[in-house]
Write a structure and sequence with these properties.
Length: 236
Protein backbone atom coordinates (compact mmCIF):
# COMPACT_ATOMS: atom_id res chain seq x y z
CA UNK A 1 0.00 0.00 0.00
CA UNK A 2 1.45 3.37 -0.96
CA UNK A 3 2.55 5.68 1.84
CA UNK A 4 0.38 8.69 2.46
CA UNK A 5 2.00 12.09 1.92
CA UNK A 6 3.20 13.98 4.97
CA UNK A 7 0.49 16.64 4.65
CA UNK A 8 -2.24 13.99 4.45
CA UNK A 9 -0.82 12.16 7.47
CA UNK A 10 -0.82 15.42 9.44
CA UNK A 11 -4.37 16.16 8.32
CA UNK A 12 -5.56 12.76 9.52
CA UNK A 13 -4.11 13.46 12.97
CA UNK A 14 -6.46 16.41 13.42
CA UNK A 15 -9.59 14.48 12.46
CA UNK A 16 -11.46 12.03 14.68
CA UNK A 17 -12.24 9.21 12.23
CA UNK A 18 -15.12 7.99 14.43
CA UNK A 19 -16.82 11.37 14.76
CA UNK A 20 -19.50 12.62 12.39
CA UNK A 21 -20.58 16.22 11.83
CA UNK A 22 -23.44 17.81 9.93
CA UNK A 23 -22.95 18.22 6.19
CA UNK A 24 -22.39 22.03 6.10
CA UNK A 25 -19.70 21.83 8.79
CA UNK A 26 -17.98 18.90 7.06
CA UNK A 27 -17.89 20.70 3.71
CA UNK A 28 -16.69 23.92 5.35
CA UNK A 29 -13.70 22.04 6.77
CA UNK A 30 -12.99 20.25 3.48
CA UNK A 31 -13.12 23.54 1.57
CA UNK A 32 -10.81 25.31 4.04
CA UNK A 33 -8.23 22.50 3.90
CA UNK A 34 -8.34 22.16 0.11
CA UNK A 35 -8.16 25.84 -0.80
CA UNK A 36 -5.00 27.70 -1.74
CA UNK A 37 -3.13 24.88 -3.44
CA UNK A 38 -1.62 24.69 -6.91
CA UNK A 39 -4.85 23.41 -8.44
CA UNK A 40 -8.58 23.47 -7.72
CA UNK A 41 -9.22 20.20 -5.89
CA UNK A 42 -12.36 18.15 -6.52
CA UNK A 43 -14.73 17.65 -3.59
CA UNK A 44 -16.23 14.15 -3.43
CA UNK A 45 -18.97 12.41 -1.50
CA UNK A 46 -18.87 8.72 -0.63
CA UNK A 47 -21.87 6.74 0.63
CA UNK A 48 -21.77 3.26 2.17
CA UNK A 49 -25.10 1.60 1.43
CA UNK A 50 -26.80 -1.39 2.97
CA UNK A 51 -27.02 -3.29 -0.31
CA UNK A 52 -25.30 -6.22 -2.02
CA UNK A 53 -25.05 -5.24 -5.72
CA UNK A 54 -24.38 -8.86 -6.69
CA UNK A 55 -28.17 -9.24 -6.43
CA UNK A 56 -30.13 -7.60 -9.25
CA UNK A 57 -32.80 -6.27 -6.85
CA UNK A 58 -30.12 -4.46 -4.81
CA UNK A 59 -28.39 -2.58 -7.63
CA UNK A 60 -28.26 1.19 -7.19
CA UNK A 61 -27.74 3.26 -10.31
CA UNK A 62 -28.94 6.59 -11.63
CA UNK A 63 -28.15 10.13 -12.70
CA UNK A 64 -28.40 13.47 -10.96
CA UNK A 65 -28.16 17.00 -12.32
CA UNK A 66 -26.15 18.98 -9.79
CA UNK A 67 -27.58 22.49 -9.30
CA UNK A 68 -24.15 24.10 -9.69
CA UNK A 69 -22.48 21.60 -12.00
CA UNK A 70 -19.26 19.75 -11.21
CA UNK A 71 -16.74 22.42 -12.14
CA UNK A 72 -15.24 19.86 -14.49
CA UNK A 73 -15.18 19.96 -18.27
CA UNK A 74 -16.97 16.84 -19.54
CA UNK A 75 -16.07 15.34 -22.91
CA UNK A 76 -19.03 13.62 -24.60
CA UNK A 77 -18.86 11.02 -27.37
CA UNK A 78 -22.04 10.44 -29.40
CA UNK A 79 -23.00 7.51 -31.62
CA UNK A 80 -25.38 8.90 -34.24
CA UNK A 81 -25.86 9.27 -37.97
CA UNK A 82 -26.98 11.98 -40.38
CA UNK A 83 -29.35 14.58 -38.86
CA UNK A 84 -28.90 13.24 -35.31
CA UNK A 85 -25.12 13.47 -35.70
CA UNK A 86 -25.48 17.12 -36.70
CA UNK A 87 -27.76 17.79 -33.72
CA UNK A 88 -25.13 16.30 -31.41
CA UNK A 89 -22.36 18.44 -32.89
CA UNK A 90 -24.45 21.61 -32.58
CA UNK A 91 -25.20 20.74 -28.93
CA UNK A 92 -21.47 20.63 -28.18
CA UNK A 93 -20.56 16.94 -28.48
CA UNK A 94 -16.78 16.47 -28.57
CA UNK A 95 -16.72 13.31 -30.71
CA UNK A 96 -19.48 12.13 -33.06
CA UNK A 97 -19.48 9.03 -35.25
CA UNK A 98 -20.83 5.57 -36.00
CA UNK A 99 -18.77 2.54 -37.11
CA UNK A 100 -15.74 4.80 -37.40
CA UNK A 101 -16.08 5.82 -33.75
CA UNK A 102 -16.51 2.18 -32.71
CA UNK A 103 -13.29 1.26 -34.51
CA UNK A 104 -11.43 4.16 -32.88
CA UNK A 105 -12.53 3.00 -29.42
CA UNK A 106 -11.60 -0.60 -30.23
CA UNK A 107 -8.20 0.77 -31.17
CA UNK A 108 -7.75 2.31 -27.72
CA UNK A 109 -9.13 5.85 -28.12
CA UNK A 110 -10.86 6.74 -24.83
CA UNK A 111 -10.75 10.54 -24.88
CA UNK A 112 -14.24 11.06 -23.40
CA UNK A 113 -16.13 10.97 -20.08
CA UNK A 114 -19.66 10.13 -21.26
CA UNK A 115 -21.14 8.16 -24.16
CA UNK A 116 -24.54 8.91 -25.70
CA UNK A 117 -26.22 6.94 -28.49
CA UNK A 118 -29.40 7.02 -30.54
CA UNK A 119 -31.45 3.80 -30.20
CA UNK A 120 -30.66 2.68 -33.76
CA UNK A 121 -26.92 2.76 -32.99
CA UNK A 122 -27.01 0.24 -30.13
CA UNK A 123 -26.19 -2.69 -32.43
CA UNK A 124 -22.89 -0.93 -33.14
CA UNK A 125 -22.31 0.25 -29.56
CA UNK A 126 -23.09 -3.25 -28.26
CA UNK A 127 -19.83 -4.51 -29.75
CA UNK A 128 -17.99 -2.26 -27.28
CA UNK A 129 -19.55 -3.82 -24.19
CA UNK A 130 -16.29 -5.28 -22.90
CA UNK A 131 -14.54 -1.92 -23.32
CA UNK A 132 -17.21 0.53 -22.13
CA UNK A 133 -19.00 -1.68 -19.59
CA UNK A 134 -16.21 -2.06 -17.00
CA UNK A 135 -15.63 1.72 -17.12
CA UNK A 136 -19.30 2.50 -16.50
CA UNK A 137 -19.55 4.21 -19.90
CA UNK A 138 -22.03 1.93 -21.67
CA UNK A 139 -25.08 3.96 -22.83
CA UNK A 140 -28.26 3.03 -20.98
CA UNK A 141 -31.89 4.05 -21.67
CA UNK A 142 -32.62 4.32 -17.91
CA UNK A 143 -29.82 6.86 -17.56
CA UNK A 144 -30.97 8.89 -20.55
CA UNK A 145 -27.86 8.08 -22.56
CA UNK A 146 -29.70 5.98 -25.15
CA UNK A 147 -32.15 8.49 -26.57
CA UNK A 148 -33.31 10.12 -29.81
CA UNK A 149 -32.81 13.46 -28.02
CA UNK A 150 -29.02 13.44 -28.35
CA UNK A 151 -28.85 17.23 -28.09
CA UNK A 152 -30.59 17.18 -24.71
CA UNK A 153 -28.35 14.37 -23.44
CA UNK A 154 -25.20 16.20 -24.52
CA UNK A 155 -26.34 19.45 -22.91
CA UNK A 156 -27.25 17.68 -19.65
CA UNK A 157 -23.82 16.03 -19.48
CA UNK A 158 -22.07 19.32 -20.17
CA UNK A 159 -24.19 21.13 -17.55
CA UNK A 160 -23.04 18.87 -14.73
CA UNK A 161 -25.20 15.76 -14.82
CA UNK A 162 -23.48 13.00 -12.84
CA UNK A 163 -23.97 9.26 -13.17
CA UNK A 164 -23.63 7.09 -10.07
CA UNK A 165 -23.40 3.33 -9.67
CA UNK A 166 -22.87 1.23 -6.56
CA UNK A 167 -19.60 -0.69 -6.44
CA UNK A 168 -19.07 -4.26 -5.19
CA UNK A 169 -18.50 -3.16 -1.61
CA UNK A 170 -21.82 -1.27 -1.54
CA UNK A 171 -20.21 2.15 -2.00
CA UNK A 172 -21.48 4.98 -4.22
CA UNK A 173 -19.28 8.01 -4.77
CA UNK A 174 -19.09 11.02 -7.03
CA UNK A 175 -17.64 14.49 -7.49
CA UNK A 176 -19.89 17.26 -6.19
CA UNK A 177 -17.84 20.31 -7.15
CA UNK A 178 -14.53 22.05 -6.64
CA UNK A 179 -12.85 23.58 -3.60
CA UNK A 180 -13.38 26.98 -5.24
CA UNK A 181 -17.17 26.56 -5.00
CA UNK A 182 -18.94 28.40 -2.19
CA UNK A 183 -20.00 26.38 0.87
CA UNK A 184 -23.64 26.87 -0.16
CA UNK A 185 -22.99 25.50 -3.66
CA UNK A 186 -21.24 22.43 -2.26
CA UNK A 187 -24.03 21.79 0.25
CA UNK A 188 -26.73 22.10 -2.44
CA UNK A 189 -24.82 19.79 -4.82
CA UNK A 190 -24.20 17.24 -2.06
CA UNK A 191 -27.85 17.31 -1.00
CA UNK A 192 -28.97 16.75 -4.61
CA UNK A 193 -26.59 13.78 -4.89
CA UNK A 194 -27.84 12.24 -1.63
CA UNK A 195 -31.48 12.77 -2.64
CA UNK A 196 -30.88 11.01 -5.97
CA UNK A 197 -29.25 8.03 -4.25
CA UNK A 198 -32.10 7.86 -1.75
CA UNK A 199 -34.68 7.89 -4.55
CA UNK A 200 -32.76 5.09 -6.28
CA UNK A 201 -33.19 2.79 -3.26
CA UNK A 202 -33.76 -0.70 -4.69
CA UNK A 203 -36.62 -2.98 -3.70
CA UNK A 204 -34.25 -5.57 -2.29
CA UNK A 205 -32.58 -3.20 0.21
CA UNK A 206 -33.35 -4.24 3.80
CA UNK A 207 -32.50 -2.53 7.08
CA UNK A 208 -30.53 0.71 7.11
CA UNK A 209 -30.03 1.92 3.54
CA UNK A 210 -27.49 4.73 4.06
CA UNK A 211 -24.97 3.43 6.59
CA UNK A 212 -22.17 5.95 6.37
CA UNK A 213 -21.42 9.14 4.44
CA UNK A 214 -18.13 10.99 4.12
CA UNK A 215 -16.87 13.95 2.13
CA UNK A 216 -13.29 14.55 1.04
CA UNK A 217 -11.11 16.48 -1.38
CA UNK A 218 -8.60 15.16 -3.91
CA UNK A 219 -5.67 15.23 -1.48
CA UNK A 220 -7.48 15.40 1.85
CA UNK A 221 -8.82 12.92 4.41
CA UNK A 222 -12.49 12.04 4.56
CA UNK A 223 -14.80 13.60 7.15
CA UNK A 224 -17.77 11.59 8.39
CA UNK A 225 -21.19 13.18 7.89
CA UNK A 226 -24.14 12.87 10.25
CA UNK A 227 -26.69 10.90 8.21
CA UNK A 228 -29.83 11.68 10.23
CA UNK A 229 -30.17 15.19 8.77
CA UNK A 230 -29.25 14.37 5.18
CA UNK A 231 -31.45 15.01 2.16
CA UNK A 232 -35.21 15.21 2.12
CA UNK A 233 -35.98 11.49 2.30
CA UNK A 234 -35.51 9.00 5.17
CA UNK A 235 -32.18 7.11 5.26
CA UNK A 236 -33.65 3.83 6.43
Amino acid sequence: MAKKGKKLVEAYKTIDRNQTVELPAALKTIKERASGGKFDQTVEISMNLGVDPRHADQMVRGVVSLPHGTGKSVRVAVFARDAKAEEAKEAGADIVGAEDLMESIQGGMMDFDRVVATPDMMAVVGRLGKVLGPRGLMPNPKLGTVTPDVAGAVQAAKAGQVEFRVEKAGIVHGGIGKASFSEEQLVENATAFVDAVQKAKPTGAKGTYIKRVAVSSTHGPGIGVETSALGSAPTT
